[in-house]
Every structure is written in structure tokens, then in C-alpha cells.
Specification:
Layout lengths: L1 H7 L20 E4 L2 H6 L2 H7 L7 E3 L11 H10 L7 E6 L6 E3 L25 H6 L6 H15 L12 E4 L5 E4 L4 H21 E3 L1 H15 L2 E7 L4 H10 L3 H4 L1 H5 L3 E4 L17 H20 L1
Parallel strand pairs: 1-2, 1-3, 3-8, 8-9
Antiparallel strand pairs: 4-7, 5-6
Helix pairs in contact: 3-12, 7-9
Length: about 300
């Protein structure tokens, strides 16, 4: 038991892609969404890009499996937000998948496979409940990652197409810093795999009225604590084509929710000159550019 306690105190951003989101203080300004936002919006860049503000953003985005709009994500947001805050800023990212559900899951408990499912503590440090319930490895991995990932990070410049995987480090502000090869051949193989995966998703998923209603509910709730902005992040043109075929009326489906926000920035309607690690997630360089664009846009709306 003493060994477990000691290892728990070593848990940090090298532990996994989520731990710091469960072991940081309550927040007044959040970035919300799936893995596109988790990797694609950098809190520090966003904070510095919004003029005349002192927002300190925290990226509370997870994955499509863990944080589509629904009761589980909504409950987590309510636990993470500083309920005394009334002048925060919230960026909610949307896409067709986050308001969809698997057709086969229609009669199942929603989001029971989410890392958020059954969790009620998002601020304890160490967060023993998270490590016992959700950390998928033996706790010795905490120490191993603490040693291994800084070494990998130091040598990350050597990443090339011969590597079959990647590694990630979660920043204190909740942004997931992913290190992976950007060799063109390697990226093309990952794109083909990702596009195939989402074509399959389009065949076994359908739009969910419940998820759309929860998007609306989350915006309503957060509006009591600050300004809410909705963003559709950019993706590779082939991914966008898959999404447009899957849900051509996406904007219409979320129109009620958008009316309750301060504004909607849809990157799918803009020129796409960004780079991606797999057609779905922005590279770090493009994430910085997109985040800055969001900050400038928010600043412009605030001045109106």
C-alpha cells in the first residue's frame, strides 16, 4: 500500500493522456470536445491571443469515445467548473461524430466505456480513485513513464517513418502534446487508415437527438459562468467529404444550440492550408495557428 501511495504522488502528465484532467483544480475557462480539440487547441496560445483578457484556459477535451455530448460529459463539466465563476470563457468544439451514436448502442447505457463514466472526482491530487478505476496498467508504469517519456521527448527529433507508433505528454493545462513522425509516406498511411475508419463509422452511426439536446444543455449551463463560443475545427478535405456525406445537415441539427452561444466559427467553410498527423488531428504547428485564429475571432466578437 505504501508503494502505491508513493507511486501515486509521481503521477503527472507522463502517466497517460487523461490523469492531469482528473487531478487539477476547478477551472473558470474550458476548452471542450473530443481528441480533435484535445490536440488541436492549445490553452496557452488561446489565452495570449484574446486581447484585453486574463482568461486562463484548461483543455478538458477527451476522445470521441469518452466525451461526445451526453450526460456523462455534462456531469464531468459540472464537477470541473468553478461554480463561483461568472466571467469565464468557453470554447466548445463540434463535429458530426460528437452528436452521433452507434446504431447498435441504442438500448445500452450511454458512454459506459468513457473514461469519465462513474467518476465524480476531477480535482484530487493524487487522484487515487482515477488510478484505481481507470489507469489501465500496473502502477509501476507511472514510474516507468516518468523516466521514459522525457528521454523520448529529448530524442523526438529522430522520429521518422520507420517508427510504427507515437508518444504523448499531457501539459499541465490539459493540452495533449503528441510526438509522431511527419514523414509524408508515414502520414499518408495513417490518413488512409483514418479515412477508412470514419467511412465505417458513417455506416454504423446515426445522429442522436439526445446528444444534440445535451450540447444545447451544456451551452446553457456554461452561459451562467461566462461566454460560450462554438468552433468546428478543420480536418483534411477527404475527412470533411466523409462528414458532409454522412451528415449534410449538421449545422441545421445544431442550430438551436448555436443561437445560445456568442458565435460559431466553422473552419470547414474556410481555406484549408493546415497540416495533419493523420487527416483528423492537427499537427502542433497547425494547432498553434488554428488556436491563434480562434483567439483573434473571439477578440473580434468581444469588441462588437
Amino acid at each position: 500500500m505504501l508503494l502505491h501511495i508513493g507511486l501515486a504522488f509521481l503521477a503527472d502528465g507522463t502517466t497517460d493522456d487523461y490523469y492531469l484532467k482528473f487531478s487539477s483544480p476547478k477551472q473558470s475557462s474550458l476548452i471542450l470536445g473530443t481528441s480533435r480539440a484535445k490536440q488541436g487547441i492549445i490553452p496557452s496560445v488561446l489565452s495570449s491571443s484574446i486581447e484585453n483578457s486574463n482568461f486562463s484556459f484548461f483543455n478538458f477535451s477527451f476522445t470521441l469515445k469518452s466525451s461526445p455530448f451526453g450526460l456523462v460529459y455534462f456531469n464531468a463539466i459540472k464537477q470541473k467548473i468553478d461554480l463561483d465563476s461568472q466571467d469565464g470563457c468557453f470554447i466548445i468544439t463540434v463535429d458530426p461524430w460528437s452528436i452521433s451514436e452507434k446504431i447498435s448502442d441504442a438500448n445500452k447505457t450511454p458512454d459506459s466505456l468513457s473514461v469519465l463514466f462513474g467518476m465524480s472526482d476531477f480535482t484530487s491530487k493524487p487522484n487515487f480513485k482515477y488510478l484505481f478505476k481507470q489507469f489501465p496498467h500496473g502502477w509501476g508504469r507511472i514510474l516507468l513513464n516518468r523516466i521514459e517519456k522525457p528521454i523520448l521527448k529529448y530524442n523526438s527529433g529522430q522520429l521518422n517513418s520507420s517508427m510504427t507508433g507515437s508518444f504523448s505528454v499531457l501539459d499541465d493545462d490539459g493540452w495533449l502534446d503528441v510526438y509522431t513522425s511527419l514523414d509524408s509516406g508515414f502520414v499518408k498511411r495513417k490518413e488512409a487508415e483514418r479515412f477508412g475508419m470514419y467511412r465505417n463509422k458513417s455506416n454504423n452511426r446515426t445522429g442522436s437527438e439526445s446528444r444534440i439536446e445535451y450540447l444545447d444543455t451544456i451551452i446553457e449551463f456554461l452561459s451562467n459562468h461566462g461566454d460560450v463560443y462554438v468552433v468546428r475545427l478543420p480536418v483534411h478535405k477527404k475527412m470533411l467529404s466523409i462528414e458532409q456525406q454522412y451528415m449534410p445537415d449538421f449545422k441545421e441539427k445544431i442550430s438551436k444550440a448555436l443561437l445560445k452561444s456568442k458565435g460559431y466559427l466553422d473552419f470547414s467553410t474556410l481555406d484549408n492550408e493546415y497540416s495533419y498527423t493523420d487527416g483528423n488531428h492537427l499537427t502542433k504547428t497547425s494547432a498553434g495557428e488554428v488556436t491563434q485564429d480562434i483567439g483573434v475571432w473571439v477578440s473580434g466578437l468581444a469588441d462588437e
